[in-house]
Amino acid sequence: MSKDFHSFSSETSGNYSSLPKSALSVPSTPSGYNVEYSSPSENHTSNFHVTLDNATVSDYGVELLRNGSCKYNCHSYAWHSTSSSNTYWIYNPQPYMNDPYYTNIYTGSPSVTCSSLGLCGNDRIVYTNNKHSAIFAGSPYSNASIGSSLVISKWGKAGVFRHTLTNVPYGYSTIKIYQPTYAQNGIVIPTE
Ligand SMILES: [Zn+2]
What we know:
Oligomer: single chain
Distance between the termini: 28 Å
Radius of gyration: 16 Å
Order of helices and strands: EHEHEHEHEEEEEH
Shape: globular
Strand content: 15-25%
Bound molecules: zinc ion
Largest sheet: 7 strands, antiparallel
Strand order of the largest sheet: 2-8-7-6-5-9-4
Structural class: alpha+beta
Number of domains: 1
């Protein structure tokens, strides 16, 4: 079976202090910047997604957290809503990256260590050329490289997986890390 994650890669009635929006609200950034999105229908049987997700677990050794769906993608999961009721496919996370609600704390190779960044939970990670988004899910002050740290992300039309940052079918030579305001204020919300 072809696992074409890439072709599907192109995820708070909100204010500055709010947490991420509910899955039901139309995507926009915390400061209200416009986000381009669609609301795709699901045309597969559930078995299609189970088979794809099982093959992905087998191929990559990742941990499946939720079976796949064609209704929302990685950017929508990482930036709009982690809810399984999410129905928005977001084409590019750039509006979120531009929003001052998020601080770009790092841009570079994934060899940097978590402790040197002072990372805490809920940071968003954008892969090379905005092709993929993930949520940091590792130890906030680990001495390990960010590349070997755990993240959670949705892989195209496949499922939501917990995996190390570099164990993906996406480019990661230059990653960008964004910290939401509430995390900068020392609040860490557990992922999944
Ligand atoms: Zn589907």
